[in-house]
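Subgroup meeting minutes
Present: P.N., E.W., G.H.
Scribe: E.W.

1. P.N. recapped why we're keeping a running log of single-chain structure predictions: easier to compare across weeks, and new members can see raw inputs and outputs side by side.
2. G.H. added today's entry (1233 aa).
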Amino acid sequence: MNIKSRSFNFLQDVFFKSRWAGLSADIKLKPEESQSFISDTTIFRKEQSLFYKYSTADNPNPIQSQHSLASNSYQHQEGKHKQESINQLAYIFGPNRLGTTFALENSLNLKVISDSSHNSHPPITKKRTTYSTNIFDSSLKDGATGLNNREFISIVPNDPSFTNNDLWGLSNTYAGSNAEAAWSQNIIGSTNVVLGVIDTGIDYTHPDLYRNIWINPGEVPIGVIDTDKDGTITFNDLNNPLNALFAEDKDPEGTIGHGYIDAGDLLQHPAWIDGQDTDGNGYLDDIIGWDFANNDNNPFDDNSHGSHVAGTIGAMGNNGEGVTGINWNIQLVPLKFLDDLGRGFTSDAELALNYFTEASAKYDSLQNPNGVNRYVGTNNSYGGGGKLDSFGLAIETSANLGNIFISAAGNNSSNNDHNATYPGNYEAVVNGIDHNISVASTDQTGLLSSFSNFGPTISVDIAAPGSNIRSTVPGGGYDFYSGTSMAAPHVAGSLALLASVNPHATGSELLAALYAGADRDNSLLSSAIDGKRLNIIGAINALKSASKVPSLEISLAEGGIPQTSENGDFISISLMLTSAPIDDVNIQIESSNTLEGRPSENSLTFTPINWNTPQFITIFGQDDSQEDGNSPYNIIFTSNSSDVEYDQLTSSLELINLDNDIPLKPTEILFEDFEGTNTDALWSQDSQLDWAITSQRSAGTGLFSAEVDGRASNAWFGLTQAIDIQNYGDVEISFDWMIETTFDNNEYLAFDILTADGSTWSEVKRLQGNIDEHAGNPFQSESFTLKTLQENLGLSGSSLNIRFRASSNRSNEDAFVDNIRLLGLPSKPPTAGIEIATSGPSETFENGASSSFKIVLTKAPSSDVTIPIRSSNSTEGKTSTSSIIFTPNNWDTPQSVSVLGQDDAVDDDDQSYQVEFLSSRSSDISYNGLIVESINYINIDDDTAAINITPSSELNTSEGGEKIAHFDVKLNSQPTGNVVINISSSDNSEGNPSSSTITFTPGNWNSAQTVTVTGADDTDLDGNQAYTIFFNSNSSDEKYHILPQQSFILINEDNEVQSPAPAPTQQDLFWDNFEGASAGSYWIQDSQNDWRITSQRSANGGQFSAEVDGLASGASISMRQGIDISNYEDTIINFDWLIERNYDTSDYLAFEVSTDNGSSWAEIKRLRGNIDEARGNPFRNETFRVNNLINDFNLESTGFLNLRFTGTANRGNEDAFFDNVAITGINNIVPVI
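Output recorded in log:
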């Protein structure tokens, strides 16, 4: 059996020495319990509960708490179940026993397994880099004084736990990590930064986490819109109504949602869950990560540890909810490998890390040129599984790609320099810096936490807050945990925040900045290398100082907070560059949602002179007249410059627009519960009279309902008169209904509507027999909005009627309707706005074809409204007017604007540009300062990059120079840089161009240049020879760079006289006619001895021939010695042969050839009995060319030729003969044309 390394901890970090490993998790104490222990604390499991006992300074009497467990089994990746002993483990920890592990022998007795207080292990040889401080001046500071005097402009998030000072680890204090100081500079993270959480999973439905869960870019369905234009699809986009087709708010039961779109909704949506491995990584539908503990795509946290870790890294900030993470914006990848009890296999942790590594290789902006996000690394708050070489190799592999592995140091109060703790003690050095960063824990006094492991020489890199940390837990809750598990995410979150400041910084550069900006504290010199304690703002300043990477620095005005309001509240922002550009830098500014906020300017320009002078813009909140709550939106900044360092840089600022819309109360148009006496006046039915008011069943607390009874055949019951709805913005229709379980398949109860503009009733829904009934016959509630129904059914109108229809076959089959309600939803008054309607595609053409759009106001202004219009690039498109003016009289009459394409004669491809609308101007304050979103246009290019070459009429040259060829060359369109045409000949011995290069500039591109080609005399009598002249381009203009090669074939006429060809020569190499004294001496036969020289028959007047006689069975005779034919161009074989007519079908005479001196033979031809004999038994003559035989029979040739004849006969009177064998060598063969 293959035993895996396995992690196993539940409440506290217990790193013990066995194949079991576990969560670097957490002493789970409530706030009132988070005091100093004065006695040992016992944690044990009994049946389905976990108990822990302890006493505190305030309460010396033992306290016992109980934690209920949902299950006592787990499933690992192979799907095999293993039942753990109910009373399997207990952990005891306290002031004297941190790091001691016990096994529970029974419910009363404990047995010590291991005690980590004994340092019996050999010294650890892991080497960590000592970081020089002479690049970043960071002096050693005394832990007691001097660190409490930093002052920052404070931007305080409105999350209750921060304002209540529960998040001490993020504060600007001596012990805190100074995240608040980073926020004051509007450094709040980015959704373009991705961090993996390898843990128990994450509660992806948590109201403080759901927007910051990663979405796998490779699994996003086609058609999802990037609404905030940040280059990636996140839950910010999916919570926008524009993506309603791809997301529906449902809880796991699919009924009532959380009020927002979260990952749980996607895991139920067919557009996302299609059963396909779309991204090809081996995991089906891994849209947010993976559960390696259960091998499925749902990494939900069923423990709480992973969610707590995730909240510290990236709980949503400034949302008025719970806590805030270091990163208000981020993408967190849930990679679950620990089960509900915090147990898991180290090999599954390795798979989780490999998953993140593969994703980073695909999508990270530094690892892949097509990546748009920055994949920083993984948080790893677990340990105790011992060393696994393959896991260490996986960490190194990930680090080599630039990923950082953040690990918890452990909670045994142990020295990791001497007692290795994994995964923290693995090493992954890249660029001289270890990418596995091990984190110790500090408490609210800034000292090392009592439980924390340490390693001042080689093993622990930095300390961070880890005691009494409040963060998110599953179910929408919050709790205080303690452990190095809580310290590690402070560091992981800090590295992610650094990456948001400079997404170009490598993992090595992020780590260097983290260490350079850390506080050096004497009190931690015995705990971490150089006594380093996390200081986020210090790391940010170090990164900025070191990188000098060109970027746009965006700052809120002093004291400003990132929010606007629908009441008109605005915020001022300053912008400047971080370094001097070599050319002007234009910053395009846009809002991701102009219904919530708009910038005062569409663009700003920085020059090499004013680059470090702040420029200011104002962001105005917009009133959308919708009760949509406080809505987030982004102001997006995109740079354009000929300075490549400053071209296409993007930054964004997330703001909140505070809603001011007071909910308008709906009006009850109709309510019918059938309890009153006036029911008959409101309702009518058809002539079947199968409907009645009954007390048999009712919904809610009433006594009566409407019932259809008897053998109804599509019997209807509805309102007597239609209801006027023209004064309502919408109508909500709701009712309760049911069919009894006795209904059959073809029986039903249906609901219909009729609007004034409709001619027939439209069915909305029906309850079908044997499908929609339920045991116990409960009522089912339905609710619809009329606008939705009209859109789905294609209806319209200003009045509404409703009815119910039913069909049943037996009198005991009943259906009921109750509590019918129509609510009129009020219309909202029109607001000041500018509407744009485009006609046709937003395209113009360089050939002059144009497009147009119409513009109109949404309500009457009190004074004239001027809307300035311009093109973002007048070389591509121009508008027919520079402004439109509306008056109080013509505000509702659309005005048309034409957009004309411009021809720039440059082959620059189809170019995008925008028709921009500057801030509207009006003394009507509601219309002053409105900005309409730009219209995107594409100007279709009619210029093609090409080389136009016109050759002379005759493409012949001559060796004597009598004939030359020439080519006229010019470009087809204007290039953006010089274009060099390289000209070459395929055969310089036949012809050469007059120049090897010609150059075109943007100024002479359409002036033809002539290239002449002259023939060359090679003094060879080779006839008229073809050769090729090639034209190839090279240019800084990518359109003209390496265009398809053009070539022309020329003929160079030969001027040499051909000499007569020599006559062919022949040489007799072998001859045998079996006459004379030497007859037969050239041949040798096999052991059958069935061949002889005979006078029985001969060819061409001779007396003798070679005969095979008797009962021969494949009897062979071959030449005694091979003939050397290597000096001849070809060789001819000639002979005569025959078989007598009495040969049977199976009898034959065969001729064989060997061209490798007898090593191998090929049968060339055979004479077969009953087929190839002839009357009178005449000889046949055969002639073969050896070259043909070599080709036809694929023979190997060594230059020696041998011949062999083979015969088979069944009777003594069956004879075969051959005669006159000749071999002739030939030279000077005249080719056949």
